[in-house]
Amino acid sequence: MYDAYGATADELAGMYRKARVDTVVFDIADVGSRFYTYIWSMYTGMVAAAKAGAEFVVLDRPNPIGGSAFGPTLDPAFSSGVGLKPIVLQHGMTAGELARLFNDEFLPEDGGKLENLDVVEVEGWKRDRLFAETNLVWTPPSPNMPTPNTALAYPGTCLFEGTVFSEGRGTTNPFEILGAPGVDWKWREALQEQNLPGVVFRETYFVPTFGKFTDEQCGGVQINITDPQAFEPIRTGIALIVTAKRVHPKLFGWREDNFIDKLFGSDRLRTMVDAGAGVDEIVGSWSDDTAQFRRNREKYLIYR
Questions:
Q1: 73-132 pLDDT, tens per residue?
Q2: pLDDT digits (tens, 9 = 90+) for 169-217
Q3: What are the Peptidoglycan beta-N-acetylmuramidase NamZ C-terminal domain coordinates in residue numbering (predicted)?
């Protein structure tokens, strides 16, 4: 048995060689967001397999939030464990499709392509299907991803991990409940006035059992997704941030380590919000990123 947790590609390749591994199988569920780290574990495993001369097999699964791509592309200067390579925030690809893209686009610069990459395809999935439409049973891929709705909200609300507000960890609805001590009804009211597609907001009060503000009463909002197909998680996340800063300027702020830049993939969000940019201006700033990524990924897509 080998402890591969946190291993680099070179270290992992050494384990493969020592154990005489000829095939590596990736069978882990992803949730469709760049900062959900399982795809980067897959990437590291792919690089290691290429170095060790092993075959890499992906047992593919549906993307639970559908096949549409949105959001900013990661700037390589902000590469980290929550985003290693320049893909958009909501990539709209399955793990198998990403593996095909990674192998052609990124592995050559990290030691060479896999000679043997095999994707065992999902039967019957189409790109416009969300998880609720698959008739599959949801198994939480991690403790703070308890439901398909969590995954839908996550591309936008995980950005709150880069702020001083709670992202809902320590509650039964992580990434759907957001807030901080002192936040009141004004945040919810200001959000409702924006008529964001597919979502309504409920004023809420909560006490996290762990994470930010453990055992402290927080005020905030709960996200209720009313139309999953119309819902735009990243736009909603940006609206939540911009509105929180406007309504509660003394309470809202960024983490001191600027972790938001790693989550977003650049310092663009932080600097634009601090400069007073509105939601439409911020969302519009990555339109070229999204268009280019959509074009580039086309040849790697398996499902239509």
A1: 999 999 999 999 999 999 999 999 999 999 999 999 998 999 999 999 999 999 999 999
A2: 999 999 999 999 999 999 999 999 999 999 999 999 999 999 999 999 9
A3: 152-303
- Residues in a beta bridge with 26: 58
If phi over 0 gives left and psi between -120 and 50 gives alpha, with beta otherwise, what is residue 239? alpha
The 3 state secondary structure assigned to the chain is CCCCCCCCHHHHHHHHHHCCCCEEEECCCCCCECCCCHHHHHHHHHHHHHHHCCEEEEECCCCCCCCCCEEEECCHHHCECCECCCCEEECCCCHHHHHHHHHHHCHHHHCCCCCCEEEECCCCCCCCCCHHHCCCCCCCCCCCCCCHHHHHHHHHHHHHHHECCECCCCCCCCCCEEEECCCCHHHHHHHHCCCCCCEEEEEEEECCCCCCCCCCCEEEEEEEECCCCCCCHHHHHHHHHHHHHHHCCCCCCECCCCHHHHHHCCCHHHHHHHCCCCHHHHHHCCHHHHHHHHHHHHHHCCCC
CATH fit for domain 9-133+290-300, picks 3.40.50.12170, 3.30.930.10, 3.40.50.720, 3.40.20.10? 3.40.50.12170
Amino acid identity of residue 13, one-letter, is: A
Domain residue limits, the chain: 9-133+290-300, 148-285
Query: Is there a contact between 152 and 65 (Cβ–Cβ < 8 Å)?
Result: yes
Confidence of residue 1 (pLDDT cuts 50, 70, 90): confident
For the CA atoms of 265, 270, 272, 275, what is the dihedral angle to 10 degrees?
A: -160
pTM metric for this prediction? 0.97
* 97 vs 144: CA distance, rounded Å: 25
CB 91, CB 295: distance < 8 Å: no
